[in-house]
Structures are given as structure tokens and as C-alpha cells.
Amino acid sequence: MAFTAADVKKLREMTSVGMMDCKKALTEADGDFDKAIELLREKGLAKAAKKADRIAAEGLVKATVCDECGVGAIIEVNSETDFVAKNADFQQFVADVANVVIKDAPADVEALKACKMGEGTVQDALQEKVLTIGENLQIRRFERFDNSTVNVAYNHMGGVIGVLVGLEVSEGLKDNATVKELGKDIGMQAAAMNPSFLDKSDVDEATLAKEKEILLIQALEENKTAAKPKPEQIIHKMIDGRIGKYYEENCLLQQAFVKENKVSVEAHIKAVAKELGGEIKLVKCVRFEKGEGIEKKVDDFAAEVASMAK
Are strands 138-145 and 72-79 parallel, antiparallel or unpaired? Predict the structure, then answer.
């Protein structure tokens, strides 16, 4: 599969590896991005980065929890420009749609559009906003947590990132301010560190097997140039130790807590629970980043001006 200079540039931005190495990896991988990243990692050039696409679309992410019922929701609504995200009318629309999610518990985006909002439906309100704002607007996705958990919302950078946290707590802690503060801290952690999994037990076998394969190739390459090469059976044991590092980087509960990096998030939760004399368990966490995974049109202004001059 052919690839372009723009593809090489994109791979460089995704991996922080030099342009020539990225070009070689794409050539060897026949233009396959995932395979190229694997090759770069096997050579020890790329970090164990998540295979996240570049953030491209504009709009707003909103996480919120109802003060009365405790139900939580997080939603992403996309627009064509970032200017719209700063529009108070658009921000209110996103907040109103999130409240519909809380109230009506729709099954999916299409069901949400059919829900009542004002004197019409959410779809009616969306179409009205398209006319008044003058841009194409899309309700992309949402999640809803019922009130069986203590739900906490965290919003970062004015709606660029939103996180909804669900904590399972013992009866006496449901309205505890310290629990709510803990939820905010976990939300901030997820926003900053973007974990791929909640807990190490959530890592599927295929992902784990692929990670071990990459780590083994790295270790074998390192062993070739080592002053005192290790027996292969020792290298296999080393991989089991290194996989712990993968958990610490990619699993929320195993990550170092951002406010006190000498303890994990899991250990911090246990410490807070002990201090309060109850039980606290992180059971749900959803993180949305606006536009993640959506390809944005890149305008070539030079070409546009040239075409206008003809």
C-alpha cells in the first residue's frame, strides 16, 4: 500500500521518531500505520504509546452530574470551528442535551435525537442551532452512569477533555465531601494520563500477548549488544517484570497518582477509604477528548490563493 510524505509526518507526530526511520518503517510495513508503530517499538525507537489518532474535530465535551438525582452524563458535540465552542449559546445547548441524557436515559445517539427537548425534540433543537450558528453540528457520543454509584464529573481546558467517574462506596459515604474530592482527583488523573484500561485485569489476552512479543524482541536486540549476554530463559523472566511497567503506564488503577507519585491510584483510594472508615471502589471511568479519532480537513491556503489568482 502506497504512502505519502504526509503519512510519514503523521507517523513522526504519533511516535516522536525521526523522519527517515518513520519512512523506513512505513516502507517495511507497506503503509500500515499500526504495523509501522510495532516495527519502531521493536527497534526501541518508539515509546509504548497508545495507538490514538490525532485529535482533529472541534466542538465541546461536557461531563455533568445531577445535583438532585446523582445520575451522571458525559457528551461530545462537534462543530466545524473552535470559535463555536466558545459560543455561550452552543455551550448551553450541549449542557441541555447532557441533561436530556440524564433524564431520559436514551439507548444511543439516534434515540437521544428523538427525545423531547423544549417544545420539540433534540433533533429539532440541533437543526435550529445549525441555522443560527451557521455551522454543521453533530452529536457524536455520550455515556450515562445511573445513581447506583457516586458519580463525579471533571472538565478540563474548557471542554477539550471531560471525564466521568463512578465510585462504589459503603452506605455512609454516599454524600461525603472527601469521596467527591477523590472522584475529582481520579478525573484529573484520567484527563492528564489518558489510560487505556481501568485495571490491569481489563487488559485482554491479545493486547497482552502483543505487548510481550514486542518486549521480547526489544530485550533480545538489547542482549545482542550487551557486554555480558544473558541466557534466553532469563530474558523471558525479565519480560514478566517489564509487563508490570506496561500496567503502570496504561491502567488507571496501577498508574502513579498524579498528586503523590510514590503511591498508585489504587493505593490512594484504599488509603482514603481507610481514613473514612468505609469502602470505596472505582468501578467506572469514561474519558472523552474532543475530536479524537476524527480526521479533520487540512486547508491548503497557498493552493487556494493560487487558484483564485488564475
Answer: antiparallel
Q: What is the pLDDT of residues 244-291, one digit of tens each?
A: 999 999 999 999 999 999 999 999 999 999 999 999 999 999 999 999
Kindly report the three-state secondary structure assignment for every residue of the chain.
Answer: CCCCHHHHHHHHHHHCCCHHHHHHHHHHCCCCHHHHHHHHHHCCCCCCCCCCCCCCCEEEEEEEECCCCCCEEEEEEEECCHHHHCCHHHHHHHHHHHHHHHHHCCCCHHHHHCCEECCEEHHHHHHHHHHHHCCCCEEEEEEEECCCCEEEEEEECCCCEEEEEEEEECHHHCCCHHHHHHHHHHHHHHHHHCCCECCHHHCCHHHHHHHHHHHHHHHHHHHHCCCCCCCHHHHHHHHHHHHHHHHHHHEHHHCEECCEEEEEHHHHHHHHHHHHCCCEEEEEEEEEECCCCCCCCCCCHHHHHHHHHC
Q: Are 174 and 74 in contact (CB under 8 A)?
A: no
Predicted confidence (pLDDT) per residue in 42-56, tens digit = 877 765 444 333 333
| Residues sharing a CB contact under 8 Å with residue 114, sequence separation 6 or more, in sequence order | 106, 121, 122, 123
- What is the phi-psi region of residue 148: left when phi exceeds 0, alpha when psi lies from -120 to 50, beta otherwise? alpha
Looking at the whole model, is its pTM more than 0.90?
no
pLDDT at 192: 96
User: What is the pLDDT, as a whole number, of residue 196?
Assistant: 96
pLDDT at 307: 53
- Rounded CA-CA distance 271/89 in Å is 43
Sign of the CA dihedral 283, 65, 139, 300? negative
The low-confidence residues of the chain, meaning pLDDT below 70, are 16, 46-56, 295-310
- pLDDT of 308 reads 44
